[in-house]
Design a protein that fits this description.
alpha/beta; five-stranded mixed sheet
């Protein structure tokens, strides 16, 4: 499937972590995420095994453990169960980002520095219009120039009349 680019504007609040968690809950409650099909539900263990003729008993036991784990997964009714359900496929949404950090890392959203904002927008206080007009270029800049990869988010404080007005979250995740 490949990774998906996502972005969101939310009202500004000084607690960026709280804003992130509220956004994740909103996206979950609206169902605006990828949920992998339960391909394993109607399979037998024999069908689940890969078509490799020389699997060892140890390898078969590992597949059996995975198969039983999948068979026992409950339907996603929370962010946590959705993340477990989707596993490495991810949700292709902000739900894949669980916390805020000062620097980019797996599963986190990190800010751009004032210098990075200046370099890209010509100001360290970009407006919503500036971001919207440069969204595709910004995504490429974050990935190509800044080295931000899959499962890493970025947030930017958005200004209106020189005051913080919104928070912009962007990134890409999923496989």
């Amino acid at each position: 499937m490949g990774a998906s680019v996502w972005s969101y504007f939310v009202p500004y609040q000084s607690d960026i972590s709280k804003a992130l968690q509220e956004l994740r809950k909103t996206v979950f409650s609206q169902g605006k995420y990828f949920r992998r099909p339960a391909f394993w539900k109607d399979m037998t263990f024999a069908e689940f095994l890969p078509p490799v003729p020389d699997l060892t008993e140890e390898e078969k036991q590992e597949y059996l453990i995975d198969f039983k784990k999948l068979q026992s997964l409950p339907e996603p009714t929370s962010i946590e169960t959705l993340i477990e359900w989707n596993a490495e496929d991810g949700t292709h949404s902000i739900i894949d980002i669980s916390e805020i950090s000062e620097s980019p890392d797996f599963g986190t959203a990190a800010p751009l520095s004032s210098i990075e904002l200046q370099n890209f927008f010509g100001t360290d206080k970009p407006s919503r219009k500036m971001i919207e007009n440069q969204e595709a270029a910004l995504s490429e800049y974050l990935h190509q120039k800044m080295g931000r990869g899959r499962w890493e988010g970025t947030y930017i404080i958005v200004y209106k009349e020189q005051l913080p007005d919104e928070i912009y979250f962007t990134g890409f995740s999923g496989d």
